[in-house]
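Researcher: Here's the sequence for the chain we discussed earlier.
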Amino acid sequence: MSFINRFLGVFFNPKETFRALSEKPLWIDVLIILLIAVIVYFYIIGPYLQQDQIKAFESNSRQRERLGEEAFNQRLEFLRNPPQFMIVIGILMQPISILIIFLIQSLIILGMGRMSSSEGKFVQVFSALIHANLINFILGNALRSFLILTRKSVFQTTTSFALFFPKLEVKSSAFIILSQLDFFQLWLFGIIGYALSFIFKFELKKGLTLSYSFWFLKCLFNIALGLLNLRFGG
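Model: Thanks. This is the structure I predict for it:
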């Protein structure tokens, strides 16, 4: 199956696309596209993310008290005028981080699948996960970029259920929880259900259960990190 057929198939014909990928896992070309898309995305949102971080730090009285006035002002100046090489490194670290996350997630999903099936290989799961993430990193980030450019803020932009509660504070436990219910993530893990049913040779219902079970665990992990950061980071 060609790259174009796989790319379009993820959006319009996921069942047959992931059936083909389970038989012949392909991933290098799509991975390259995703990593380039991540670099472009963070390059676009970088200035707005920087401004959000500056505003958040300026209003953080807990950090001001903990660091002291002089150290606080030095940190603030660094946020306002970071070295150029730090900006470049920060952008380039994003695709590396994403790749590591893909590898870890694939291992976890494989382990969960092998608990109820003797079928399935790492490369099959990795290929499926890479292709499914076209939804999040291409279509999802395209919409997020548009919204960020329109609102001129990263922190105030979401494609999750938090969108229905515009008065929610970004630094609130409710926002942290609702932000995990991202529409593109829900779509992504829905089509991964097809892939897992082919990879582990079981029915679609079981594939969807496995897919959304992993999504639920991932949400719990991210919520826990967000709440800890809210509690200790201010």
